[in-house]
Design goal:
The chain contains one helix and eight strands; from the N terminus they run H-E-E-E-E-E-E-E-E. The protein is α+β, with helices and mostly antiparallel strands and about 150 residues long. It has one domain: Beta Barrel (Lipocalin).
């Protein structure tokens, strides 16, 4: 009976570890969700990024700024859809478009890559383009079920 109890405990522990590992992957993606802020070093405008989704690995992004240089200061919005990088769990890649208004026109279509570093998020630039832009979470951290150690 003692041997059966030991085997049962070991098997139970393995099952729990297997499920917590799979759930951990989903929780690590949740850390990108929320409202982020930063400052554009080129023109000093304030930036806000809202990232939502992530339950199925797909995210949506809405980016607003107080001044859009690419739109000559006109109102604009950046919208994108993306997913986590399969090779780097701390990275999200978005296909995005910047739409200027008055008159309405899409001025940029490109790819954005964000990397989670510590408690902050970086917009990773292509080499030689511009510096990596840091964003800081201003919303409460999204919590998953169970412990949230990611």
């Amino acid at each position: 009976m003692k041997r059966f109890s030991t085997v049962l405990i070991v098997v139970s522990a393995l099952v729990v570890l297997a499920f917590s590992g799979a759930a951990g992957n989903g929780r690590s993606e949740k850390r990108f969700r929320g409202l982020w802020e930063g400052i554009d070093p080129g023109d000093g405008s304030s930036q806000q990024i809202l990232i939502s989704g992530g339950a199925d690995g797909e995210f949506s992004l809405t980016w607003s700024e107080s001044y859009w240089t690419v739109c000559d200061g006109r109102r604009a919005i950046l919208e994108g859809f993306g997913e986590s990088d399969r090779d780097e769990k701390n990275t999200l890649v978005f296909q995005m478009a910047i739409t200027c208004f008055d008159p309405k026109e899409v001025v940029v279509e490109d790819t954005l890559t964000f990397r989670f570093v510590g408690q902050d998020m970086l917009l990773v630039s292509a080499p030689g383009e511009f510096t990596d832009l840091p964003f800081f979470r201003v919303s409460s951290r999204v919590r998953g079920r169970g412990s949230d150690n990611d």
